[in-house]
Structure formats: C-alpha cells, structure tokens
Amino acid sequence: MSMKSITRRLVCLLLLAAVLGWPSPTDESTALLADIRRPVRVETGAVGDYLDVLTGRGLDAADQGVRVESLQGDVIYADHFGGDTFNPASVMKTAVTLAALDRFGPGHRFETAFLIEGSVDGGTLHGELVLAGDGDPEMGTAELTRMARAVTQAGIRRVDGALVIAGTFTVGNLHRRDRVASHVVRTLARAGVRVPAEVRYGEPRGAEIVRRWSSPLSEIVFDQNARSDNPTADRLGEAVGGRRALEAYLIEEVGLQAGDVRVGRASGLGRGRMTPEGAVRILRQLARLLDGAGMRLEDVMPVAGVDSGTTRLRFNNASYRGAVVAKTGTLVRADDGVSTLAGIVYTQDRGPLLFAVFNRTGPVLQYRRFQDAFIRDLIDEYGGRADFDARAHRTAS
Fold first, then answer.
1. What number of other Cβ atoms are within 10 A of residue 51's Cβ?
2. What's the pLDDT score for residue 132?
3. In this structure, what are the phi and psi dihedrals at residue 313, rounded to the nearest 5 degrees?
4. Each residue of 340-383: pLDDT tens digit?
5. Rounded CA separation 178/308 (Å)
C-alpha cells in the first residue's frame, strides 16, 4: 500500500470519528500522522553561499553532496545531491558504531578466554586448548601474550589435541582468519606453549584458565571515532558479522535503500558508497539508540575544538567551540580526493541539526576549510551556538 493511500485512509477515519462523535485521536494517532507527513523544506542561505564558493573555485557542483535536517527529521534545511552516492570515507565508521551499539549495548565489555577441554599430565594437555572471544577490538599482541603466559602458569607446555578458536577473535591489525590463527600459534610458542600448526574453529567449551574484559563499548567507539582508528573499526565490523552483515543491517534495520549503500570496509577505507541523506539517517538512528541509554552523540563522537583527534583544531574559536560533534573522513587517492564531515550542530534558533557534507574530486585540505565555513555560517544564520554545550553533557554523564 502506498504512503498516499495510508494517508487518505487515516484522514478519512479521523473525519468519520469526528462525525460519529468518537473520542478524539490518541497521542499515538497524532504521532502516526506526524510520521507520514512529508518533511518541510526550508532552504538555508548558508548552503547557497557554500556552493557558490566551491563553483567559484572551479569545482563541479555535482561532486558536492549536502544534507541538513532537524534532529526529528521533520524539516530539511539543505539538500544538494543528498540522494546521490558518494564515497563516505571514515564517515562509514558511524555505521559500524551504530551496528555495534545496537547489537551489544553501550556498556558491553568484550570477553576473551582460554579454556581447556581434556586433562593435563606432565605439562601436556591431552585435549583441546580453546580460545573463545566475541570480537574484542582492543586485543593486541601484548594482551594476548599475557593470556598465553597464564596458560603456561597453569602447567601447560604442549597441546597434543588441537587449538580451537571459538566465536570471533581478531588481534592488532589482523582480522583475516588465516593470519589471526598463525599469530595465535606464534604467540603461544613464544610464551612456551607448543600447539599444532593447524587451527580448528568450533564452539566455546572447557574449564577456564584466564579471561580478559575490554573497556566498555561506548569508550571503544568514542576513541575509534575521535582518532578515526581504522583497525578498530574494521575489527568491530568483524564483531557484527563482517561487511556484508553491516550492509544488510543498514538496509534492513536502518532503512537505507539497497542501491544507496555499499560497505567496502567498516573503517571506510576503499571504495564504499553512501548518500548524504543515508548518513543523516544513520546519525538519527544512533541518536535515538543513545537517548534510550541516557546518552548523546557526543558520548560516542568527538566534540570539535575540544576532544583530541581529527576534529581538535576544527571549530575551536570561542564562538563555535562545543557546538559541533562530528566524524571526519579523508581519502587522498580514492575517487580523486574525498573529504567528508557528518554529525550534529547545536544552534540557538533551530536547535540540534544533523548534517552530512560529502566532497569528491578535489583538494581535500581546501574542502575541509569550505566545510567548516559552511557549518559556521549555518550556526550564525540560526542565532549562533546554542546555550547547550556538548562538553558539559558528557562531563556530567
């Protein structure tokens, strides 16, 4: 049934209710009406000025994508090629942030454990040594080495059964199965434990020797987004099922159209695709998920001009500091130069606005300056920075 048909039927029912003296519509009915209305379009002057600057520098307007919406999605303030696909670069990290938080929850701590299935006699484990995990993106060689030493401290020097990896396990910059398995075998050997070179995959089972917990997921994704950490994002992508699973999530759960998104890597490296409109939709879904946990976007993304990382030197003037929470993206070679910025800006007159600015085929450093000028103009046009300061909320929470 089309959206127009749904609208007509609902309006007819409400009119019939009024004629027959039925009770007035409930809050749910009113909310449904609000959901099915088309958003109002209010073109901001800032976007016209922004595009004039770009085209005045000889840059093609078709290589620029802009989308600005109210947090609720009921008003569109700017839409320039917002439905066209661009390479989002590291803005793709907002997608894996959403998928991971939705699957595991902000407070989730990833767990990794060594288990033994069998008996130990004279330093030999007659059975299986099981490495079980759920995809801890903080696991590095140092952490794995400490766990391997715990195996030797349990009196195990040799495994005559098998080394089994259960669940999702990645380490350092490694997330391909063959490379991860070889690294685990070598790390155990350096710690004094000989295991068969061939690694099997199975289910977690056996008695626990040692277990490690990660930092809370909210802290992991904040650090990932602030520093634009590619290995962490790619490993989180594996934890949610891989790039195809992430792509399916964005289509089936977030509502992006199949032709409007392609995940190359969860980090945004390579030639992924996303529309500015899709990036805003992801941010809105992320904001809603976080709101349910008493959190905001600034709890998982950096405050520009304040937090260390890729936005530390952006919007750091006193008039704008604390007003922008955003994820940057840069690819120098792909698509002849890609620069992206997406996030939320807190304005005095229009409240919080979600935005995505995608640029391609041009000078990435200049694009960043143009993006910043556009967002500053947007803030000025709508009454300046809101009294709300993103820094204060995160500190309080």
1. 18
2. 98
3. -100, 10
4. 999 999 999 999 999 999 999 999 999 999 999 999 999 999 99
5. 35
> What are 4's two structure tokens?
């127009």
Positions in the chain short of pLDDT 70: 1-36, 388-397
Q: Is the Cβ–Cβ distance between 361 and 336 less than 8 Å? A: yes
Residue of 243, 242, 223, 224 whose CA lies nearest to 233: 224
Contact residues for 346 (Cβ-Cβ < 8 A; gap 6+): 322, 323, 324, 352, 385, 386, 388, 390
Cβ atoms within 10 Å, residue 369: 13
Domain ranges of the chain: 40-106+218-396, 109-215
The region, left, alpha or beta by phi > 0 then psi within -120 to 50, assigned to residue 224 is: alpha
Element (H, E) at 330: strand 324-331
DSSP string, 352-373: EEEEEEEEESS-HHHHHHHHHH
**Is 233 in contact with 217 (CB distance < 8 Å)?**
no
Q: Is the pTM of this model over 0.85?
A: yes
How many other CB atoms are found less than 10 A from the CB of residue 397? 11
Residue 176 has a pLDDT of 86
Q: Could you tell me which residues come within 8 angstroms of residue 7 by beta carbon, excluding any fewer than 6 positions away?
A: 36
Same CATH topology for 40-106+218-396 and 109-215? no
Say what the pLDDT of residue 17 is.
Answer: 42
CB 275 within 8 A of CB 340: no
Residue 389's pLDDT is 62
Q: Which residues contact 171 (CB under 8 A, 6 or more apart)?
A: 139, 140, 141, 144, 180, 183, 184
Level-2 CATH architecture, domain 40-106+218-396:
3-Layer(aba) Sandwich (3.40)
Distances (CA, A) of 368 to 188, 311, 347: 46, 11, 21
